[in-house]
Design a protein that fits this description.
The complex is a heterodimer. Chain A is α+β, with helices and mostly antiparallel strands. Helix content of chain B is 25%, strand content 14%. Classes of the chains: A alpha+beta, B alpha+beta.
């Protein structure tokens, strides 16, 4: 039977930034404003009461400010004793009079402090927690926890086993959504829990030596389609975020339950395991409302959300665990190489669109069935990039894990203008005609064969001027291989003697944002027996092609990644350099056939150094 | 001109929302209208609500309970 685990997290955030900003209208800053402290605590109490009324246990993540508040501490202790809630420690809600006095900083994001400051803050918070409760917490978190921060925590407080470590795809889109003022630039991680690498929190660990020592959970469970092209804080298991995105009518939001149910259904792709996380800060239940939603609506949405989880629990379809309990369950019998898979469908816009998400220690990728199964996102986890963030680092606020392909940030399949965008797809050609599978919408199904996950697309019909062919795509992902096997099968042709070319290609770049990075020094190469071709990227539109190719590859030094393509039989390979107005590189493998046949290729990402 | 203030409900600019930017508006009591500091939108509450309803139309499945996955 499938297991659906849920973590519900609450935090007594004594001075939530939203509430504070509201109370400050027309007044000067005062972090000790009594009205704010009291309202915040009331909200926390209300959230806990709703969870318990629905028979759900929570993880109470104490903020630094709440450790100085006797009422908040007493509530946490009482709920731990009465309901079995876990008492953890969060790095959210740092700002309060005590913090300001001690650290002389207005910084609110733990991952953006300089490393020395992060260490001092960790010791202060864990020390204060111990002083108050007499034990150290085993779960912690923030919107983002960089690997350097977690490595330090583990070195000092090895009992920590779970952390809220990132917000899925909260990056440039979240920044833009907040009028360029919200610095959670954290794209590129997994959407469901994972064991992070010691080198980079976004990457799942490859083995025990790479294991950072805790289970990371995402901050909320997000809509894997809506959030790819929209703000993270509109579409997730956070009822008030749904109100923010206005994905409701009247005062009803069936979308929340649809989202939960789709997450439950992911058990089909993950050996019977599914997960949800809900974490609503008190600022989202302000008595004076939030944007268009009044308090009554904010409260109703939260009550109904938890009531649905409670209903599922009563039916035996949900297990409410604390974060630390979940970490133990997650690790049981789970090999490091096991991927996380999600064949996601649209539940919001009324289309039949599907996307397939995949994450393992080598890569994260996304296939878009609206574009014939084109690969629209590719993150080279195999590189396990050391990429510290915060003050004093090169990345500074940009904590995202780089992509090689992100089709929305870098155009993807071009329907107009000159040039190319980042995407991996296939072109079927005949004479002077050519059709890109990006233009052929289709549907996918999921299956498994041993340790291989298979995504099979429904055949699409390509119409040339004088005849048509049916083409089917299949993607095979074998656990631990670090490769994607792609099969393009010509099933039949209305003119079997007509010659066809299958051109499997990837147009890529690298970066973390919409803006181009310098590709100078990227090395493109081809290998065929003793023949080889290679160039160092210089925006000169150079191309090369070799028959009977063994390997086509790009080495991208800024992200320490080797991207390669190979085929299983006679095929030619090529690379293509771009130009400044089209800063991309393309690798491809081509094959010619008549009637029926297939091209089988393997895409691999590996660490270059 | 009167001092802009936050309204009773803190409306976002509906035009900025169309491009997924959460931009708080200010309220001019004298003119009884909201205005945006970013995109020049002005309108009364009725106009804001009309445009918000338009924004929601993109979610064609917003009222549908989906049970088959």
């Amino acid at each position: 039977m499938a297991a659906f685990y849920v973590n519900i997290v609450h935090r007594p955030e004594m001075v939530p930034e939203y509430l504070q900003k509201e109370a400050e209208q027309g007044k000067v800053e005062d972090l000790t404003r009594r009205a704010v402290l009291q309202e915040s605590l009331d909200i926390f109490r209300t959230q806990q009461q709703i969870a318990h009324a629905n028979g759900l246990r929570t993880t109470v993540q104490m903020t630094y400010a709440s450790l100085f508040n006797a009422e908040a501490v007493a509530l946490a202790q009482e709920h731990h004793a009465r309901f079995g809630d876990e008492i953890g420690l969060t790095f959210l809600g740092l700002q309060c009079a005590e913090f300001r006095e001690k650290f002389k900083s207005k910084e609110l994001a733990i991952w953006l402090f300089a490393l020395d400051d992060k260490r001092r803050i960790v010791d202060e918070l864990f020390g204060k927690f111990f002083e108050v409760f007499g034990f150290y917490p085993t779960s912690t978190g923030s919107y983002y926890m960089d690997a350097e921060l977690v490595n330090y925590i583990k070195s000092r407080y090895p009992q920590v086993k779970a952390a809220v470590a990132t917000c899925w795809e909260e990056g440039p889109k979240a920044y833009w959504n907040a009028n360029n003022s919200w610095y959670t630039l954290l794209d590129g991680g997994p959407w469901n829990p994972w064991i992070p690498s010691k080198r980079n929190i976004h990457c799942p660990a490859s083995d025990e030596a790479d294991d950072i020592g805790l289970v990371a959970i995402p901050h909320l469970s997000r809509d894997l389609m809506a959030v790819f092209d929209g703000p993270g804080s509109y579409y997730g298991t956070h009822p008030q975020n749904i109100l923010r995105g206005m994905a409701y009518e009247g005062r009803e939001l069936p979308y929340f339950q649809n989202l939960v149910d789709q997450y439950r259904a992911l058990a089909k792709y993950n050996r019977g395991y599914a997960y949800n996380m809900m974490f609503v800060g008190p600022g989202w239940m302000s008595k004076s409302g939030r944007w268009e939603a009044d308090y009554a609506f904010l409260l109703k949405s939260y009550q109904e959300g938890l009531a649905y989880y409670g209903e599922l629990k009563q039916q035996g379809l949900l297990q409410d665990l604390t974060m630390s309990e979940f970490a133990d369950v997650y690790r049981q019998g789970r090999p490091y190489s096991r991927p996380e898979c999600a064949l996601w469908r649209d539940i919001l816009y009324g289309s039949r669109r599907q996307m397939f998400w995949y994450a393992d220690p080598a890569m994260r990728l996304c296939l878009d069935m609206n574009q014939g199964g084109a690969l629209v996102d590719l993150r080279p986890y195999a590189a396990k990039l050391l990429r510290p963030c915060g003050v004093g680092t090169k990345a500074n606020q940009d904590a995202s894990y780089p992509f090689l392909v992100q089709s929305l940030y870098r155009a993807g399949y071009f329907t107009h203008y000159a040039g190319e965008g980042a995407v991996k797809s296939c072109k079927i050609g005949h004479g002077g005609e050519q059709v890109d599978l990006c233009a052929c919408r289709t549907q996918a199904s999921f299956s498994e064969a041993g340790d291989t996950r298979i995504v099979t697309l429904e055949p699409v019909t390509i119409e040339f001027e004088a005849f048509s062919v049916r083409v089917q795509s299949e993607f095979r992902l074998t656990e631990g291989s670090g490769e994607v096997e792609i099969i393009r099968r010509v099933l039949d042709s209305t003119r079997p003697d007509a010659e066809l070319t299958i051109d499997e290609y990837i147009t890529a770049c690298y970066g973390t944002t919409e803006y181009p990075e310098d590709l100078t020094g990227v090395r493109l190469s081809l290998q065929s027996g003793s023949a080889s071709e290679a160039i160092d990227y210089a925006y000169q539109c150079r191309e090369a092609e070799l028959a009977d190719v063994q390997c086509v590859e790009a080495v991208i030094p800024p992200v320490d990644t080797r991207l390669s393509l190979r085929a299983d039989g006679a095929a030619s390979g090529y690379f293509r350099e771009g130009f400044a107005f089209s800063p991309m590189y393309t690798l491809g493998i081509k094959k010619t056939l008549r009637g029926q046949g297939e091209l089988r290729t393997w895409l691999k990402v590996a660490k270059a150094s | 001109m009167a001092q802009g203030r936050k309204g009773q409900l803190n409306y976002r600019c509906p035009r900025c929302l169309m491009r997924e930017i959460d931009m708080d508006m200010l309220y001019d009591r004298d003119k009884a209208e909201y205005y945006c500091l970013r995109c020049s939108f002005t309108g009364d509450e009725r106009e804001v609500l009309r445009l918000n309803a338009q924004f929601r139309e993109k979610y064609r499945a917003r009222t549908v309970r989906i049970t088959e996955f």
